[in-house]
Amino acid sequence: MLAGCVHAGGGQGPDPMPPAVAAPAPVAAVPDPLVRATQSELIRLGYLRGGADGFAGHKTRAAITGFEEANGLRTDGMASTRLLTRLRATPSPGSAAAPAAWLPPENHPDATPVSAPAPPDWVEPVKTP
């Protein structure tokens, strides 16, 4: 009566211990080149300290949000090609690069005295109303 039963030694039925399954090997995280470039620009502009590692952690997201808020952009704290383009177009703080149409006030130390001759390639700016 017990001939077909596992307990009777028939060897039929499921194995009580399943075979050991190897755990998948841990996958190393890969740095994102877009995030790394964004971090480099945020560092250059003073919004982020440290190194550019290519991983968007909370400090990177906070720096992105700070830049977006300071520049009137929609804030999402995410790296994107549009954001990177905007970051790259932003001059470094204290850089000598000024917009082409910028003229210092007359009493500013960078102002050219009226008595100084104009450079040979000087073009008189057009005044707009």
In N-to-C order, the SSE pattern is HHH
Unreliable runs, pLDDT <50, ≥5 residues? none
CATH class of the domain at 33-89: Mainly Alpha
Q: What is the CA–CA distance across the termini?
A: 109 Å
Broad shape:
rod-shaped
Helix content: 25-40%
Look at the helices and sheets and give the structural class.
mainly alpha
CATH architectural arrangement of the domain at 33-89: Orthogonal Bundle
Please state roughly what percent of the residues sit in beta strands, choosing from under 5%, 5-15%, 15-25%, 25-35%, 35-45% or over 45%.
under 5%
Q: How many DSSP-defined strands? A: 0
**Biggest β-sheet, characterized?**
none
The radius of gyration over CA amounts to 33 Å
Supply the number of helical segments.
3
Per CATH, the superfamily of the domain at 33-89 is PGBD-like superfamily/PGBD
Fill in the CATH topology of the domain at 33-89.
Muramoyl-pentapeptide Carboxypeptidase, domain 1
* Overall mean pLDDT: 79
